[in-house]
Design a protein that fits this description.
Blueprint: E1 8-12, H1 19-30, E2 33-36, H2 37-51, H3 58-67, E3 70-72, E4 82-84, E5 87-88, H4 96-106, H5 109-123, E6 128-132, H6 135-139, E7 145-150, H7 153-166, H8 173-189, E8 202-205, H9 211-225
Helix pairs in contact: 1-9, 2-4, 3-5, 4-8, 7-8
Length: 227
């Protein structure tokens, strides 16, 4: 007797659009696991910075990645906790240095191939909400439900400024918006797995919406389209 696996729900979108916050709450509502794929790239960027690896050298970055055991907790009811080689690095993943470096390591084809293999293994049994930049287009294009969250640059910069302030970094809003815009350009123009909306993804602009309203919209769509 075969059993149908539970659905995979994919969230994509640019930095600061609210993907992680919304995806986590949706996972809680549905009783699903949660995977933040971006946290895995951030863990790699952090390890590269700490080890002195040249962030623009693809082979060096890939060699480092192959030595790393990256664990991302799947409990959506708690803050995503990330471990590298058994050491927790969660509080270090949102620093300005990592923010400036993550797109560099994420643009390499060989690095993304390795990460995608790991991510597919994590989600293959279903019953998981996944967020990132290429979830619905590359990692799990077969996901039963897909969403693409976006927001104005100003709204995204303000959110990221608040996030950084909570961990003790006080960053100029104009400079932060410039950094996010630069990352948008890197993510959307890279040759492999660029940031883009999947053809079958539901587009949601979160600029002027509360998290609770976005979550309610997503849950309603999921319950209507997933059986």
């Amino acid at each position: 007797m075969s059993f149908r696996r539970r659905p995979i729900i994919a969230f994509d979108g640019p930095a600061g659009a609210g993907k992680s916050t919304v995806a986590r709450q949706v996972a809680v509502e549905l009783g699903y696991r949660y995977l933040d794929t971006g946290a895995m790239y951030r863990a790699l960027a952090l390890a590269a910075l700490h080890s002195g690896v040249d962030l623009r050298d693809e082979q060096e970055v890939l060699t480092l990645l192959k030595t790393l055991v990256i664990d991302v907790t799947g409990d959506p009811a708690a803050l995503t906790r990330v471990f590298v080689g058994g050491e927790e690095v969660t509080d270090l993943l949102r620093t300005p240095e990592v923010n400036a470096s993550v797109s560099l390591v994420a643009e390499f084809l060989s690095v993304r191939d390795e990460m995608v293999q790991r991510q597919r293994e994590i989600v293959r049994e279903g019953g998981v909400v996944v967020d990132g930049r290429d979830v619905g287009t590359v990692i799990v294009p077969e996901a039963e439900v897909k969403f693409f969250l976006t927001a104005s640059l100003t709204a995204r910069a303000q959110r990221r400024q608040r996030d950084l302030a909570r961990i003790g970094y006080h960053v100029d809003l104009t400079g932060l918006a410039e950094d996010i815009s630069r990352r948008d350009n890197l993510d959307s123009t890279r040759v492999y797995a660029p940031l883009r909306q999947a053809a079958d993804a539901v587009l949601i602009d979160t600029s002027n919406q509360d998290v609770e309203d976005v979550v309610a919209e997503v849950i309603a769509h999921c319950r209507e389209h997933v059986r």
